[in-house]
Each structure stands twice: as structure tokens, then as C-alpha cells.
Write a structure and sequence with these properties.
This protein is of the alpha+beta class. The chain is built from 4 helices and 11 strands.
Amino acid sequence: MIILYLALCFVILGYLGTALIAWQSIPQRNAITYSALLFVILGAIGATWITIDMSRTSDQLVNKSNTIENLYQKLNSSSIKLQESSQDIAHLNQKIAESQHELFLKSEKIAGLQDNTLKNITGGNSFCYLQVWGINSSGLVETALIHKGNYPLSDLQITFEDSLLRDKILADDISNSKYHYKLSDMDTMFKPAIKRLKLIKSFPTGSSIHNYVTMTLSGDHSYYTLNYWTRNRRFTQILSFRFVLNKWTFATMVVDDKDKELYFDINNDFPISSDGTIQW
């Protein structure tokens, strides 16, 4: 900047010197020549001022340009940092989502383990039934108590009822005008027809008990009802025998406490009505 001003001063001095030399060469001086000299001096001063002002303006523009460039660089740097921060936030959100999904899977696994543990204690949807293996010529029935399901049964209680004998006791009692209204009296009255079988503390999955119930058939029809209680549910089995074509046949069905069928089995020769109804 200083060098520019010095060069400008030398130019002006040279300009004025040339004007003075020209002035000295004029033999006759009048108002016009004086006015011309004055305009030359004023023009030199004006040109100098304009040059200095333009130089200042140029410097200001350069400074402003530098300032704008610095601001742009800062803005660009801030934009890069913001982009990096956005990427970090997106990565963090992805990690959070992955952690939540992993937590959800672990929660499901824990819930499944808890449910499985509970079902191992209560028996879940497992049940059991009395299966008929064979009937000999004397009417002796060979049976097995079969476990069905994925979970063990605990504290299994079973009552075995001769339903035909129960109906006969009730019919005889009514005909003899000795009908008992109290529940305790009814239990006593039906005691010959109902047996409470031995409690089974644990009945593992896939197991069976051979000849858990013994029965001998007579006449041409026998009908039994078995009531089962476990820790979390109750179900009932009906078991009917009929003597057909010189042999015993049977049909059986197990239902839960909502009458949903759990198990069904029937011999080929067991009597069925024309409309498909089983003659229990």
C-alpha cells in the first residue's frame, strides 16, 4: 500500500513538473493560461484522490471477499460437522433399535421360559385317558392309563363311576320314596357306584400305568364315567361297552370342562344309529 502511494506521488510530481515546464515555455500569460494551470493542478489532485479512494475501495472489497470466504469455509466446516453429527445420530438410533429388538427377543424368550416352567408345574394342556387294550372271554378288561401332551401332570385325582349302577341306585331310591335331597346324602347313596382312585403325585410325559383300573363286564351293556382333576384343569372320559355279535366292543371320548373333544376312539362293530349317532 505504501509503495503504491509513493509511486502515485512520483507520478503526480512528474505530471506537475511537466506542467511547470510547459508553463515556463509560454511567453505571454493571461487568464486563460492561469485557468488552464489551475485545472491541471486540480485534475492531478482529483486523479490522485480518485486513485487513493479506488485503492481503499479495492482493499475493502478484498477484505470483504476474504471475510466472505472465511465465513463460507466456516459454514462448510459447520455443514460437514452437522452431517457427521447426523450420521452419528442415525448410527446411534440404529444401535438403539437393534438393542430394543434384542431386548424384545430376550423378553419373549424369558416369557417363553416362564410359560414353559409354569406349564411344567401345572401340566399345561396335557391330559390323560383310560385306554382299552383288550377284553377276554370272561369280560375282564385290560386297560392302561395313558399320558397325552408335552407337560407332566401333577396331583392327578380320578373318580371312576359305574354310570348304569348309579342310575339304578337313583331309580330304586325314587321308587321306594326314599329320595335324598342333601348333597352329603347323595354322596353316601352313590358310594357303591363311585370309586375315588389312588392319587397320582406325578405322571410324566409319555408314560402309562398298566391296569390302573380293573373292571369286569356283564350283561350286554356297561357304561363308565371317569372324572380327572389336575392342578389347572378338569376333563371327563366316558367309556361305553356293548356286547355285539358275540363279542364286546367299546367307544370312548374325552372332553374338557368346556366340552371340547380331546380324544376319541371307537370299535368298528360298536352300534351307530342310521343318522350317525353313537349309541353310548
